[in-house]
Design brief:
The complex is a heterodimer of chains A (120) and B (344).
Chain A lengths: L1 H4 L2 H24 L6 H4 L18 H25 L6 H24 L6
Chain B lengths: L1 H38 L15 H11 L10 H17 L18 H23 L2 H32 L4 H6 L14 H14 L11 H4 L10 H25 L11 H6 L5 H22 L5 H28 L12
Classes of the chains: A mainly alpha (120), B mainly alpha (344).
Chain lengths: 120, 344
């Protein structure tokens, strides 16, 4: 229970941070003048009307990076607790993480050679 | 009654963090303009108040009074929610930062994990902002921001792992105390490659120069926040600078011994500087990193996007992977003088 109580200030802090942002936004709304017109509200595109919808298809590499990120971030999630208790681990614990890391490095080398990390 | 007093007390403590933080952000913007000005042989803002010291407040007032434009084709609610979603994690991450020994709002065991989480959350706000604006430049900026933040996040996470290996705890106070002894015990020395990797990814994570493809004025005008004006823009600005200060704070905690005095362990100087509170050292170290931020901006030209991705994936990640292996063996074999503490 004591451990959980330590997290209460964090929850409150997140709440206050959200509130602060909202307050500033509302303050901006209340204080500012409002004289909208069609040209002002149009999406910015160097001064003329937007040629086409902004939500165009984008380069697949962005998607690829996101996929790679999931794998590596998962790896970080595994490494964090492992790193904390490494001193108390047996060599078996070290070796199993070594195996996991090794597999990941192999995959990393593969994607490097395949050109998944190339831009241009 | 007791709980209400307790909650009020917590709220008061939060205010004691947020208020100085906002003022620091205000003066960081002024410092940035001043420092860059002097590096360019200019004077910088000096009209509002003595030496321009009131300039930040004039800026804030101006931003709040400016008209808030909500583009007609935007997704209105997401458009308004995005700046709040960027600001909230930038502020909330400060909950676990120990400013001095015992001077911390929430002394949790998963401190570093929490920081890591909060620093990655802000990318959602950026993505939402870019998408909801329904403008080409905003969309491009958001895509770049997402891919860049995500790439450097991995390098940053691996750098954290090195610190965790050395300190054996995720609690930020424990990490700082594990560095006590003298200046050579600070982790910047045994973890030097990780220190550099952390700092570079920190700069990239906050989308600062020279990694500011996300907002690159000369190519995609202002990137994801091109459609924001007035208070919405002010929130993005506040969040960016709060994140810069956060990255500096974490860098000094993890690698420069947080609030520890640099003269610790030196016979005479240690006593001479014993009166200086830890908070002062901490702020000085943060100031050093913030100056570095500004210095980088004044010195380096912007990277190209493929160069940024190459640096993140092909340089920083291999370096961190290798160094994690090195550090874990050093810890396992109790190699001194850094890795032979008992751990926690």
């Amino acid at each position: 229970m004591y451990m959980l109580a330590n997290y209460l200030p964090i929850v409150i802090f997140i709440g206050i941070a959200l509130l602060l942002g909202a307050i500033l936004l509302v303050a901006g709304f209340v204080l500012s003048q409002k004289k909208p017109n069609a040209a002002k509200l149009a999406p910015y595109e160097c001064g003329f009307d937007a040629m086409e919808n902004a939500r165009l298809p984008f380069d697949v590499r962005f998607y690829l990076v996101a996929i790679l990120f999931i794998i590596f971030d998962l790896e970080t999630a595994f490494l964090f607790p492992w790193a904390v208790v490494l001193r108390h681990l047996s060599w078996f614990g070290v070796a199993s993480m070594g195996l996991f890391l090794g597999l990941l490095v192999l995959g990393f080398i593969y994607e490097w050679k395949k050109g998944a990390l190339e831009w241009e | 009654m007791d709980t209400i007093m307790n909650l009020l007390w917590i709220a008061l403590k939060i205010l004691a963090i947020v208020l100085p933080l906002t003022i620091s952000v205000a003066y960081l913007t002024l410092a940035e303009r001043k420092v860059i000005a002097y590096m360019h042989s200019r004077i910088g803002p000096n009209r509002v108040g003595f030496l321009g010291l009131l300039q930040p407040f004039a800026d804030v007032l101006k931003l709040l009074l400016k008209e808030m434009v909500i583009p007609s084709q935007s997704n209105r609610y997401l458009f308004l929610a995005a700046p709040v979603l960027v600001l909230a994690p930038a502020l909330a991450a400060w909950a676990v930062i120990p400013f001095s020994k015992g001077l911390v709002l929430a002394n949790i065991n998963a401190g570093l994990l929490y920081i890591f989480m909060m620093s990655s959350l802000s990318v959602y706000g950026v993505l939402i902002a870019g998408w909801a604006s329904n403008s080409k430049y905003a969309m491009l900026g958001a895509l770049r921001a997402a891919a860049q933040t995500v790439s450097y996040e991995i390098a940053m996470g691996f750098a954290f792992v090195g610190v965790l290996l050395a300190a054996g705890s995720m609690n930020l106070q424990t990490i700082v105390l594990a560095q006590s002894g003298n200046i050579l015990h600070w982790y910047f020395l045994p973890l030097l490659p990780l220190f550099f990797v952390y700092w570079i990814s920190g700069v990239a994570e906050t989308n600062r120069h020279p990694f500011d493809m996300v907002e690159g004025e000369s190519e995609i005008v202002a990137g994801f926040h091109v459609e924001y004006a007035g208070a919405g823009f002010a929130l993005f600005f506040l969040a960016e600078y709060a994140n810069m200060i956060l990255i500096s704070a974490v860098a000094s905690l993890l690698f420069l011994g947080g609030w520890l005095s640099p003269f610790e362990g030196i016979p005479l100087l240690e006593n001479v500087f014993a009166f200086v509170p830890g908070l002062v050292w901490f702020v000085l170290k943060m100031g050093f990193f913030l100056f570095l931020y500004i210095w980088l901006r004044a010195t380096f030209p912007r990277y190209r996007y493929d160069q940024v991705m190459r640096l993140g994936w092909k340089v920083l990640i291999p370096i961190t992977l290798i160094w994690i292996v090195v550090v874990s063996f050093a810890v396992k074999f109790n190699i001194g003088p850094w890795f032979n503490q008992a751990g926690v």
